[in-house]
């Protein structure tokens, strides 16, 4: 089938088939790992099959990039060596010294560091804004100077939800492009380009890869001119993934839909268990009617995801004890894999923002709910909270 024909197919079909046709020579159903840096050419200046050097393009990567574009409903997909490499490439491709960007006031720590410690030195200014509030974003935009409005939704670890459609309108009014980091929702639960966003960025390390065995990033866009700039910088900056990393990421993507359904099923049951547990002061999950972003999440997400945060009633030490006592939940950073993880954001993922406006409550615990037997996960939390 052609790319156009996949357009009308369902998400799962696109995730499994788009981007690759069985290999001409062997009929291989899965894209082979093309472990080659260079390609024999037909003659001087005469490329064969569109490949000349693997920084510029490699068939294993091409297959992944086609699939990434298809699942995000975009025209152009680009794979990178990490989520941050993808972000850096967006910055260099679309911003110049003297420009300005609006960032979430609770951005992923690595994203904030990239803007504040790397891009700022290079001359790119940023203003943090509460992206759950479109008016706050409007106020932060400097017309003429703001090139990007950068949004994560839901955010980490407080799971704030931003209205992508409303923010696209605000960004475009201000002459800026809307970038959505779709790592937490994954393309299965939310497709920002269909809601008006201009650029989707991913850490494919998380749900897309899904097995905690590979680091990667992705950018997906519709606009041909933006795509041309991203592609030029992808090749010029060279932060590309190798063929084995592309193979692993692509293999993960094929099962994203079934994994996300189970992540969400398990998360909903765990939320039910935690909500009302005497040792838990508050459960933070966009699927709860009391969550301030619930209505927006319902509008733009298929389900509410696999990340849950909760506050432990007895305070910081009790929260640390829960993390230490859990056994099925592995104590660790990152998220989105098949295995459940537990962490204390204040001391782990968000330790570097202590004392800033990004500081998170000390009694907060974050769960990345995996796809194990949910009764085992609940029994583990019961034990850890007891
Ligand atoms: C992990 C993460 C990133 C960074 O991606 P890497 O693959 O670790 O470079 C960016 N955004 C979000 C929301 C993340 O969770």
Report on this structure.
Helix 2 (11-17) runs antiparallel to helix 3 (59-71) and helix 3 packs parallel to helix 10. The chain has 14 helices and twelve strands. The strands form two sheets. Strands 1-7-6-5-4-2-3 form a seven-stranded mixed beta sheet, sandwiched between helices. Strands 8-9-12-11-10 form a five-stranded mixed beta sheet. Helices cover 38% and strands 15% of the residues. The longest helix has 19 residues, at 256-274. By secondary structure, it is α/β, with parallel strands linked by helices. The protein is globular, with a radius of gyration of 21 Å. The protein has two domains: 3-254, Aspartate Aminotransferase, domain 2; 258-385, Aspartate Aminotransferase, domain 1 (Alpha-Beta Complex). Strand 5, helix 8 (186-189) and strand 6 form a beta-alpha-beta unit. It has helices at 3-6, 11-17, 59-71, 83-94, 109-122, 134-140, 164-173, 186-189, 224-237, 243-254, 256-274, 294-300, 316-325, 374-385, and strands spanning 76-80, 100-104, 125-129, 146-152, 177-181, 199-203, 217-221, 280-284, 307-312, 330-331, 341-343, 364-368. The chain binds pyridoxal-5'-phosphate. Residues 82-84, 108, 110-111, 152, 156, 181, 183-184, 203, 205-206, 215, 217 line the site of pyridoxal-5'-phosphate. Pyridoxal-5'-phosphate is lined by residues 82-84, 108, 110-111, 152, 156, 181, 183-184, 203, 205-206, 215, 217.
Task: Based on the model shown, name its key terms.
binds pyridoxal-5'-phosphate; Aspartate Aminotransferase, domain 2; 386 residues; alpha/beta; 15% strand
